[in-house]
Amino acid sequence: MPSQPPVRRILILAANPTDTSRLRLDAEVREIQEGLKRSDGRKQFEVTSRWAVRTDDLRRALLEHEPHIVHFSGHGDGEDGLTLEDGQGKAKLVNTAALTRLFKQFPSIECVLLNACYSEVQATALATLGPYVIGMNRAIGDRAAIEFAKGFYDGLGYNRTYPDAFEFGLTAIDLEGIPETATPVLKQGKPQLIKPDLAPESTKSRNFSPVFTPQPQAETQVRIFLSYKRGVEPDEPVALDIYAALSSQHQVFIDQAMVVGTPWVEAIKREIAQADVLIVLLSATSLQSEMVQQEIELAYEAANDRHGLPKIFPVRLAHTAPFPYPLNQYLDPLQWAFLETPTDTPQLITQLQSALAGNSLPIDTEIAKQKLLQRTVPISLAPPTPLAQPPAYHTPLAIPLEPPEGSMDTESEFYIERAEDTKALSALQRKGGTVTILGPRQMGKSSLLIRTITQARQQQKRVVFLDFQRLEIAALTEDDLFYRRFCEWMTVSLRLPSQVDTYWDKYKSLGNPLRCTYYVQDYLLAEVNQSIFLAMDEVDKLIAAPFRDEFFSMLRSWHNERAFEPVWKLLDLAMVTCTEPYQLIQDLNQSPFNVGTSLTLKDFNETEVAELNRRHNGVLSLADQQTLMAWVGGHPYLTRKALYEAASGNMTAADVFDAATVDQGPFGGHLRYHLFRMDDKPHLVQGMLQVIRSQTCSDEQVLRRLERAGLVRRVGRQVQPRCRLYAEYFREHLRE
Questions:
Q1: What is the mean pLDDT of the chain?
Q2: Burial level of 307, CB count in 10 A (0-12/13-18/19+)?
Q3: Where are the transmembrane segments (predicted)?
Q4: Which of 34, 329, 476, 700 lies in the 20 to 30 Å Cα band around 205?
Q5: Which residues, in sequence order, are bridge partners of residue 314?
């Protein structure tokens, strides 16, 4: 007799705190159990359910049952985590890092289904551990959640693989006419093979032994997403020519093909996630577009989840300057195409067709890239960049390049020094300084950090520039990996051979903070034997890391050690964050952010705007300057953007103000970027609308996220939109 397949243990965890909206969790669990009972494989599954799950319940249930499949039903809050219950039945958020650390202890888990709103963040993190993980990329309704669960477990009950069961879940939503099939997403982890005695007969007969199915070979027709800057020449005409030429053979998405009324944010995210190739047209104008940057980042993230798809084909449109940061991180290592003039478009299309067939793009070597970039011609008035540009010698590029022109250049005549600049530079004149630069997005924090870096180099200090947003998810969840990365990062920046393994073995009985401390003290500082300036940008990326308190406490100890160990006076610390320090570390007595010099950046005042206008040849009258202040409130990036458009002759001042809230206007890309980031997060949408309508925000967590994004500000007891531009645009475009 053939042996019986082993039983697969399913653990269902449900949480619906009393202070959250009610969910039909009982109906969902009942449908799962009934569906499995009816299936051919009913004897292969053992279902256990736990209700009103608290953090202790979660840990103990996993230990007790060692499940193969974990199903969570409840609420999610995106980056902030999943919602369990506390001892009083109220909501308690469990962050992504803590969940990942817990699930890492259970290698038997093959699949995790997070049937909760905005749980894609947790799904992406858990998938790095190996299992298949299903999450939701937006809010999901009760009906859709229940139908998906029914379809998914019907598939499993009849011996289908996890990817097949996922498709049955989507089909179940579709068959009920519920328009939410784009909400569930499957994150494929490392390959996992079914044990021979578990594989169903139908699977064995078709030689489908692995649960993990490799990506199929590309068919003749390729799914393409065409990214470009609309309303700009030569970008739009070239994009339309490419669309016309490739559409006959391939499935090409271009935004102009969307029917009026289509939810464009959802459409763009869905199309990029499903594309095989992203062709992105890069001109001097489009490279300043926050939406183009967002589309490249989405493609990069999707490629990490889909084994390299979509591929990115960068096309330079008469642009021979280095890519700005952070796009250089994504695009420098890739092959490029180059279009000198629009008359060369037929040749470009031929090159793209060849690349779609599996061949290389024309600029495919470092020598070819350097040759193209040597043609760069300096310009007198560079467009403002959305993000500060690190000096080229601190940014690991595929090609050693000169720093790009732009508003963040330390020698730019358009850089406005504020009082905080003087304080920061003064604090770092001496050895052993500590500076924290605080402010919301696009306030000039990173730009000021770059100026401190330039001063440090002038003082013959060795500079280490670390941008924490470049850390991979695994390094933000595993403490040992993070501290090793941190030490290796500093070592590479200082051009020293790595001794990380040696120190980790030598001090194996100590914790990671002490290993890191001894590595810096006994190796890096001793070997360099001169001052080191450690500049850390985006440190709030660690806000969800389980080891954040001990890391920031370690930095505080380095500051304190200067009083006892002279060698630590050779280390300067500079940190940039858009998160209030009390959100980054629980014990403020151990915080590195409240020692040394702490600076909070503010918007430009009228005097600073007037000075910036003078440097743009006085393009705005006094009345125009006042109108600009009324619209953007001294927002550094938007102020510079308006002045650039007027000074370059692209628009008159009147045109800038008339089109301020128009999608294709001077601020359109910036506004669409924020709308894109908020549109599928109802809690942020509701919070922003509450601020606009009543100058309050009842959810403190939402308020903090809106503040970090630079969209709102606290004024006394009120909360206000940061500027009139945001108030008018988001009042019109946000929908509850």
A1: 83
A2: exposed
A3: none
A4: 34
A5: 280
Task: Give the C-alpha separation, 639 to 634, whole Å.
Answer: 6
Structure tokens at 66: 């060692």
Residue ranges with strand state E in 376-425? none
What is the rounded CA–CA span in Å between residue 634 and residue 725? 11
pLDDT of residue 217: 34
**Residues 624-658 pLDDT 10s:** 999 999 999 999 989 998 998 888 888 899 999 99
CA distance linking residue 484 with residue 504, whole number of Å? 9
| Banded pLDDT at 193 (limits 50, 70, 90) | very low
Residue 71 and residue 123 in contact, taking contact as beta carbons nearer than 8 Å:
no
**Where does residue 549 rank: exposed (0-12), middle (13-18), buried (19+ CB within 10 A)?**
middle
Q: Tokens 């290592």 belong to which residue?
A: 333
Tokens of 687: 């919070």
Instruction: Tell me if residue 183 falls in helix, strand or coil.
Output: coil
Residue appearing with tokens 């003078």 = 614
Write out the two tokens for 653. 């001042």
Alpha carbons 183 and 120: distance in angstroms, whole number:
9
What is 40-60 written as a DSSP string? Answer: TTGGGEEEEEE-S-BHHHHHH
pLDDT at position 377 over 60: no
* pLDDT per position as a tens digit, 208-225: 233 333 333 334 688 999
Region at 81 (left for phi over 0; alpha for psi -120 to 50; beta for the rest): left
Question: Could you identify the residue written with the tokens 């089909």?
Answer: 171
Q: Is the dihedral of CA 238, 239, 241, 246 positive or negative?
A: positive
pLDDT above 90 for 664: no
Identify the DSSP state of 568.
G
Place of tokens 């010099």: 597
- Rounded to whole angstroms, the Cα distance separating 223 from 329 reads 25
Between CA 688 and CA 681 the distance in angstroms is: 11
Q: Which domains does the chain have, with CATH numbers?
A: 8-188 (3.40.50.1460), 223-371 (3.40.50.10140), 419-600 (3.40.50.300), 607-733 (no CATH)
CB atoms within 10 A of CB 97: 23
Q: Which residues pair with 82 in a beta bridge?
A: 76, 94
As a whole number of angstroms, the distance between CA 687 and CA 702 comes to 6
Report the percent of the chain where pLDDT is more than 90: 38
Question: Binning pLDDT at 50, 70 and 90, where does residue 189 land?
Answer: low
Q: Please, which residues bridge with residue 45 across strands?
A: 8
Q: Which two tokens stand for residue 528?
A: 């360099």
Instruction: Give the pLDDT band (50/70/90) at residue 375.
Output: low
Task: Determine if the pTM surpasses 0.90.
Answer: no
313-357 per-position pLDDT tens digit:
999 998 888 887 778 778 888 999 999 888 889 999 999 999 998
H helices present in 200-333, as ranges? 201-205, 235-246, 264-274, 290-305, 327-331
- DSSP secondary structure code for residue 286 in this structure: G
Q: Do strands 311-317 and 251-253 pair parallel, antiparallel, or not at all (unpaired)?
A: unpaired
What integer pLDDT is reported at residue 518 of this predicted model?
96
Say how many residues make up the chain: 736
Among 502, 389, 531, 527, smallest CA distance to 447 is for: 389
**Percent of the chain that is helix, strand, coil (3-state, to 5):** 45, 15, 40
Q: Give me the percent of the chain exceeding a pLDDT of 70.
A: 87
Structure tokens at 225: 């997403």
End-to-end CA distance of the chain: 60
Residue 383 and residue 644 in contact, taking contact as beta carbons nearer than 8 Å: yes
Cα angle 540, 546, 551 (rounded to 5 degrees) comes to 60
Rounded distance between C-alpha atoms, residue 661 and residue 642, angstroms: 13
